[in-house]
């Protein structure tokens, strides 16, 4: 009887300790202000990482890190604190094109936060690289290029149509005969 | 940590792709995956319910309510009070629409 009285409080303490990380604030949310979509190899993805204890309180004095993985290649980038409490900044560089997964270790309780994998496309040719809209896109054809091509096509059709009408009505001015 | 998720856009059968993509950005910005599991977001959080199952078949209005009023109804096996209740002020209305669309597409 006496033994069971001792065991019960001990069991309660052990259960409480096991539940402590979650119940006593041992978790945090990690938010990213951008994703690597549109980033090309060698160009830094500068991302702000917001770490909130319980999803509410900014966590200071920690060192989050971003890990990127593609096949057997892994790179890790340590984030540095910004002036804003709970916000850290990492500069992540994808070394090559391909499918990359990325995670963030919150640096608080070692919780690893996962995100959808991204496809890092090879850097476009020089003219396309000059277009910011193309860089910000997910890798699809830029709307600007499509509109430009459509505009050129419409213009060509109009010019051809006008030319045909002129020829059909004989309105095309004939080359003047040189004066005798 | 090398697991790859299905392309969230490809799984969006019922929502416009752009809105779904925008919803994923909101999801990432708010850190939803830190607490919730959702395959479409490659999220494996364990503190909150698995949204792939708990939101399956739910209407957009119900999903929106679960975000902005998390204390109104707890998912089976979970208690209310863990999720912050100020997302109505943290997330702009348009972004909230995107997030709801993303969740509807990704759940179930």
Task: Give an overview in words.
- Chain A is an alpha+beta fold and 180 residues long.
- Helices cover 32% and strands 29% of the residues of chain A.
- Chain A has four helices and ten strands, in the order H-E-E-E-E-E-E-E-E-E-E-H-H-H.
- In chain A, the strands form two sheets. In chain A, strands 1, 2, 3, 6 and 7 form a five-stranded antiparallel beta sheet that branches. In chain A, strands 4, 5, 8, 9 and 10 form a five-stranded antiparallel beta sheet that branches.
- In chain A, a hairpin with a 6-residue loop joins strand 8 and strand 9.
- Chain B is mainly alpha-helical.
- Chain B has one domain: Orthogonal Bundle (Cytochrome Bc1 Complex, Chain D, domain 2).
- Chain B has five helices and two strands, in the order αββαααα.
- Chain B has a two-stranded antiparallel ribbon.
- In chain B, helix 1 crosses helix 5.
- Chain B is globular and about 35 Å long.
- The two termini of chain B are 24 Å apart.
- The interface between A and B is medium-sized, with 29 and 28 residues.
